[in-house]
Design brief:
Elements (H helix, E strand, L loop, with lengths): L1 E10 L2 E11 L4 E5 L6 H9 L6 E6 L2 E2 L8 H5 L2 E5 L10 H11 L5 H13 L15 H13 L5 E5 L7 H16 L3 E5 L3 H7 L2 E6 L2 E6 L4
Parallel strand pairs: 3-8, 3-9, 6-7, 7-8
Antiparallel strand pairs: 1-2, 1-4, 4-5, 9-10
Helix pairs in contact: 3-4, 3-5, 4-5
Bound molecules: adenosine-5'-diphosphate.
Length: 222
């Protein structure tokens, strides 16, 4: 599903990833842990095609994405959702309008689009607030909307970068449960977090990064 072969990435003199080799199977639940600056975000961005490696090869669903051309990126991203710590919702737009956006960008129209949004909103328990502006929602609700937006096009891979970073303990438990439910339905989940509670609750494979290297790789849900 996701394969890294000797991947390295530098920013000027900073080594973000160093000789990372990795294989993630379909349906796995993977936690990326490690201190700030360890390379977690960089690893996620490389999978998402938001950046390219300096060395090595990356395969996503057997397609080599190491040297992506701009025109290849939309196709790659159709199979992925990405959830961030700082929601990045459009605050003046409604819940529905935010979640429908990825489908519209992909050229979707008509009742099928509406149905997909409703399903995604129901999955995260936010359908009753579909007409509410996202700017007035609580942090936990905003993160639920982000998750709906990330899964609305039924991605095969769900990436998340510190998705509970802005949430208190109770909300963190709820959001982690949501990721587990999405994973249980077959989506491969890859989440970066330095929150030990999240790692324990997710109970998946743990990749520990330090200074751009994988120091340990424990447990697997595949
Ligand atoms: P983490 O997500 O584990 O905190 P990152 O992947 O964000 O780590 O960063 C890894 C290293 O690469 C850090 O030293 C960071 O400062 C550096 N880095 C990441 N992105 C950039 C960038 N766009 N420009 C310069 N340095 C960067």
């Amino acid at each position: 599903m996701i394969q890294f072969f000797h991947v390295s990435k530098r920013f000027d003199r900073t080594v973000a990833l160093k000789d990372v080799t990795l294989h993630i199977q379909k349906g796995e639940r993977v936690l990326l842990t490690g201190p700030s600056g360890a390379g977690k975000t960089t690893l996620l961005k490389l999978i998402f095609g938001a950046d390219t490696p300096d060395e090595g090869q990356i395969l996503v669903q057997n397609r080599n994405i190491s040297r992506l051309r701009g025109s290849d990126i939309p196709h790659l991203r159709r199979s992925m959702g990405f959830v961030l710590q700082d929601f990045k919702l459009l605050p003046k737009k409604s819940v529905f309008e935010n979640v429908v956006l990825p489908l519209i960008i992909q050229g979707g129209t008509g009742p099928e689009v509406k149905k997909k949004v409703t399903e995604a909103l129901k999955a995260v328990g936010m359908d009753h607030k579909r007409a509410t502006q996202t700017g007035v929602l609580s942090a936990g609700e905003q993160q639920r909307v982000c998750i709906a937006r990330a899964v609305v096009n039924s991605p095969i891979i769900l990436l998340a970068d510190e998705p509970t970073g802005n949430l208190d303990t109770d909300l963190t438990v709820e959001i982690v449960d949501l990721f587990k439910t999405i994973n249980a339905r077959g989506t491969t989940v890859l989440m970066a977090t330095h929150n030990r509670q999240v790692v324990e609750q997710m109970n998946g494979r743990v990749l520990h990064l330090h200074s751009g290297r994988i120091l340990s790789d424990q447990g697997t849900t595949a």
